[in-house]
UniProtKB/TrEMBL annotation:
Its main location: membrane. Residues 1-17 form the signal peptide. PANTHER family: CHOLESTEROL UPTAKE PROTEIN 1, SID1 TRANSMEMBRANE FAMILY MEMEBER. Belongs to the SID1 family. It comes from Brenthis ino (lesser marbled fritillary). It is a multi-pass membrane protein. This is SID1 transmembrane family member 1-like. The keyword Transmembrane helix applies.
Length: 798
């Protein structure tokens, strides 16, 4: 009788079917339900439900189906609820509860929602098939299930339309953007009975996807091609397309060349925040609200206009050099500075020394037991004649060693950098992991094979201005060679050192461009290395102007640079407080030593054995109960003999400038110790560039203090360089990425392009710093031109 009843029900309207398997004691309930209705069902290990769905109208059949399943009952993880959705071209399955194991807590989700893959997404969409679903469980207890299916009417994204959505780990969502003129692509006759989304019929070839959120819950966003299945869970989302983590802000530029027909945008809330924050935070509410929008990216015409504008600006900066030269020529007059003849010092009247013998060799084995008194030093000032005894050919040879060393370092350093960064770029394209490279994704404009072409191209300013400076040096060298030899007059020029400065600027552009192929913590030193070189070479140039024979050799200089770069790498890899403390002590110790050397014009010498002897003597006095007695007696004797004059520096101008420099360095060191964050490379760059600028200011001030005239063009560079450096510093501090943080947190600093829709603040830093360095180089190049006809015994050393 029961079999007859079941058969009659099946043969009727097929609205309800009940199939009983007496052998297995199982009941299969097959029923047809409608969309947008909340359905209550009960399942256990003996009851399984099979659900079909129907709609009153096909008007929404072009949209995909989203399934919502939940329960208020406690479901054991040993007896989960199994949900299966069958479509024409695939099957999807899930289980409840969703279990999330974090380091601090286990989370259970008793509800889930999934969007069924629209197999016909893209051209020639006709209708999305209705699924057939199965609910089952092995639980011996009844489980009440609520289920609802609906059409996702906001599934197709429109240009410049913001979409808001809520996501949990168990309810991921995704949407579709089409690059076709109309993704439905149907004739008008087939549209009449369907409700289609409104599409922009001028869809761009490139779109910027901007995503915002008001909470710090960690999420992953994936960009996938329009094929099924769509990977919408944390475990397999990384196997297709492009993906990145985010908290409050995210973005990516997608072009039609990447996805010719269109792409899915998948939103998934991650099980924990560790990947975004870097620490295992306590588990909390895993619900996240997104707001996102697809907007037209920069067109090719806008891209070209921005690039040409930047190029024009760089060329304008380069043209300032010949204009400044014309200004100097228009007001040129020969001036010989006449001062009281200084008392001849032993440094100028040493007999038996060849002209090409450096003065530094005369005292290499001489031990000075006491520091010369300030009065004696002031009575016998040094002049350039005493520190420039080498022949011009010897000066030229030594200076060209800087250029050959710079060229060798540039080639050896750059080749592996290019190879490494090209490998990074290929890795990103193959894996799709957008967390590898720390771009400003809201202003990362693809250019050919480059993911961030604008940040690469903006480095052209370094290359062009560096080449322009080298051409200036070559032109000056040709003029000097054509002029008759004038004897020992003027400041000796070191063309090789000047060439190496120009080459350093060129290589800064090359390596910075390489760094921006894939910027991250592991390769930041490539971006800053030749900035270090530039800063050190400028300081060498300033010192060499007044100390031609006693300057550091090229080998020593580049050995020092290698040491600085090694410190930078250590600081990037492990910036712990102990490292900061050691670096700060070394920094301030070097400042103190150089202060004494500069104040006493190189006459203050303290070999290591003198320092050791002083320490031992001090310890012995402490043991004898006469701590510091000898030092105190000296101080009292000096005060009795000279009164307050003993406290007055013999060189007040130099003392004041050195005091300012030391205060600045102490302030910078204190700030570094207070912050001691992971961005040590930026601190090291600030130390080197800051001291270079301070050294330049001191040099100019001492020139004016000694009554030396500055050429008109130098005043132009003195006006332009600080303005350019101030602008560059402002742009540099307005950082749009933070490689010292996680990729997700770095994205919170991202911002859209501000200049011509092509460049952001970091691009402007490239352009402004290139101009600032170029102006500074030109200042160093011509600052001593008025001394060209001044005898060297009248040029003071400072």
């Amino acid at each position: 009788m029961l079999k007859i009843l079941i058969l009659s029900l099946i043969l009727t309207e097929n609205v309800f079917s009940l199939i009983v398997n007496p052998t297995l004691n199982e009941t299969f309930i097959h029923n047809t339900y409608k969309y947008d209705e909340l359905i209550d069902l009960t399942v256990n290990k003996t009851v399984m439900h099979i659900l079909d769905f129907e709609e009153d109208s096909d008007i929404l059949s072009v949209y995909p189906t989203r399934v919502h399943v939940g329960t208020n009952d406690s479901i054991s993880v040993d007896y989960p609820l199994l949900v299966t959705a069958s479509q024409q071209k695939g099957i999807s399955s899930w289980d409840l509860p969703l279990v999330i194991n974090t380091k601090n807590k286990v989370l259970y989700f008793n509800d889930m929602a999934r969007t069924l893959c629209p197999h016909d997404a893209g051209p020639n969409i006709t209708a999305q098939g209705r699924p057939s679903m199965t609910l089952s469980t092995s639980s011996p207890n009844n489980v009440t299930v609520k289920i609802k299916v609906r059409r996702v009417q906001d599934f197709y994204l429109e240009v410049n339309k913001e979409v808001t959505l809520n996501v949990t780990p168990s309810t991921p969502k995704y949407y579709y953007f089409s690059f076709d003129r109309d993704p439905l692509n149907l004739p008008h006759s087939q549209r009449s009975h369907l409700l289609f989304p409104k599409f922009n019929y001028t869809i761009p070839k490139s779109v910027l996807l901007t995503i915002d959120s008001d909470d710090d819950v960690c999420a992953i966003v994936s960009i996938q091609s329009n094929s099924c299945p769509v990977f919408d869970n944390e475990r397999d989302v990384t196997y297709r397309g492009y993906h990145f983590t985010m908290t409050r802000k995210g973005g990516i530029t997608v072009t039609q060349s990447m996805f010719p027909r269109g792409f899915y945008v998948v939103f998934i809330v991650m099980e924990s925040d560790e990947r975004c924050s870097g620490v295992a935070a306590r588990a909390h509410d895993r619900r996240k609200t997104f707001r996102f929008e697809a907007a037209a990216s920069v067109s090719a015409a806008e891209y070209a206009a921005g690039a040409l504008a930047a190029l024009a600006l760089v060329l304008l900066v380069a043209l300032l050099a010949p204009l400044a030269h014309a200004l100097s020529c228009a007001s040129h007059e020969t001036v010989i500075i006449i001062e009281n003849e200084p008392v001849p010092s032993s440094s100028r009247d040493v007999a038996g020394i060849a002209d090409d013998t450096p003065i530094v060799s005369r005292h290499s084995d001489e031990f000075e037991s006491e520091v010369e008194s300030e009065a004696e030093a002031a009575a016998a000032p040094l002049t350039l004649a005493g520190l420039s005894r080498a022949r011009p050919q010897a000066h030229s040879r030594r200076s060209y060693r800087y250029f050959t060393s710079s060229l060798t370092v540039a080639v050896v350093y750059a080749l592996p950098v290019v190879q490494l960064l090209a490998t990074y770029q290929a890795r990103v394209r193959q894996s799709g992991d957008q967390d590898v490279c720390y771009y400003n994704f809201l202003c990362a404009l693809p250019l050919g094979a480059l993911s961030d072409g604008n940040h690469v191209a903006s480095n052209a300013g370094y290359v062009l201005l560096g080449a322009a400076f080298m051409l200036q040096v070559r032109w000056r060298q040709a003029r000097r060679a054509a002029a008759p030899y004038r004897g020992d007059v003027g400041i000796p020029e070191h063309p090789g050192l000047l060439y190496s400065m120009g080459l350093a600027l060129v290589m800064e552009g090359v390596l910075s461009a390489c760094y921006h192929l894939c910027p991250n913590k592991m390769n930041f030193q490539f971006d800053s290395s030749f900035m270090y070189v530039t800063a050190v070479l400028c300081m060498v140039k300033l010192y060499q102007s007044r100390h031609p024979d006693v300057n550091a050799s090229a080998n020593t200089t580049f050995l020092l640079l290698a040491f600085v770069m090694a410190i930078g790498v250590i600081g990037i890899m492990d910036p712990n407080p102990y490292f900061w403390a050691v670096f700060t002590i070394a920094h301030l110790s070097i400042c103190f030593f150089l202060t004494l050397k500069i104040y006493y014009v190189g006459k203050f010498k303290m070999p290591y054995y003198v320092g050791m002897f002083a320490v031992l003597l001090y310890v012995n006095e402490c043991r004898c109960g006469h701590e510091g007695a000898s030092l105190a007696r000296r101080a009292v004797a000096a005060l009795r003999a000279r009164g307050r004059a003993a406290l007055r520096p013999a060189r007040p101008a130099r003392a004041l400038l050195l005091a300012v420099v030391n205060v600045c360095n102490w302030a910078l060191a204190a700030y570094g110790m207070y912050e001691h964050n992971g961005d040590f490379a930026r601190h090291l760059l600030a130390v080197l560039l800051g001291n270079t600028l301070l050294h330049t200011c001191c040099y100019v001030a001492l020139k004016l203090r000694h009554g030396e005239r500055l050429p008109p063009a130098a005043w132009l560079w003195l006006a332009l360089a600080p303005a350019a450096w101030a602008a560059a510093a402002a742009f540099f501090l307005d950082s749009r990425t933070k490689w010292s943080e996680t990729a997700a947190r770095s994205r919170t600093h991202n911002a859209p392009c501000t200049a011509l829709r092509v460049f952001d603040s970091h691009d402007l830093w490239h352009l402004a710093s290139a101009a600032a360095i170029f102006f500074s180089f030109n200042l160093l190049l011509i600052i001593d031109d008025p001394l060209a006809d001044t005898p060297r015994h009248l040029i003071p050393v400072f």
